[in-house]
Amino acid sequence: MGWWRRLDRAIDYYFNTLGERRGSAHEVERRIASDPKLGPDIAAKLCGLRRMRNVVTHEDVGPLSREEAIHYAEDALQLIWTLTFPRKS
Fold it and tell me: Do the Cβ atoms of 4 and 53 come closer than 8 Å?
């Protein structure tokens, strides 16, 4: 869950740089989807990671496989980078 915490901090950074208050998870995803520098694909990837984190944290599914953990970490790192250094429009 360390990767989710890092990603969560990147989301905070994103909203701080915009001078906006962060809302619920769904509001965060809507705001990211509407940002022309990010868009709906980034919001969907964030939603998928959030859902996976919630399943692992709150349901009895056992540990992730090595491959699933690696994929999660790679996706989280990519989103952290994207939220911290968005493309110029």
Answer: yes
> Taking the model in full, what pTM does it have?
0.87
The angle subtended at Cα 65 by Cα 6 and Cα 55, nearest 5°, is 60
- Name the amino acid, one letter, at 60: D
HEC letters along 54-77: HHHHHCCCCCCCHHHHHHHHHHHH
pLDDT tens, residue order, the chain (89 aa):
689 999 999 999 999 999 999 999 999 999 999 999 999 999 999 999 999 998 887 877 777 789 998 999 999 999 999 999 877 65
Distance CA 12, CA 45 (A): 17
**Widest pairwise Cα distance in the chain:** 43
**Cα 55 to chain centroid, rounded:** 15
Which of 80, 69, 25, 79 lies closest to 50, judged by CA?
25
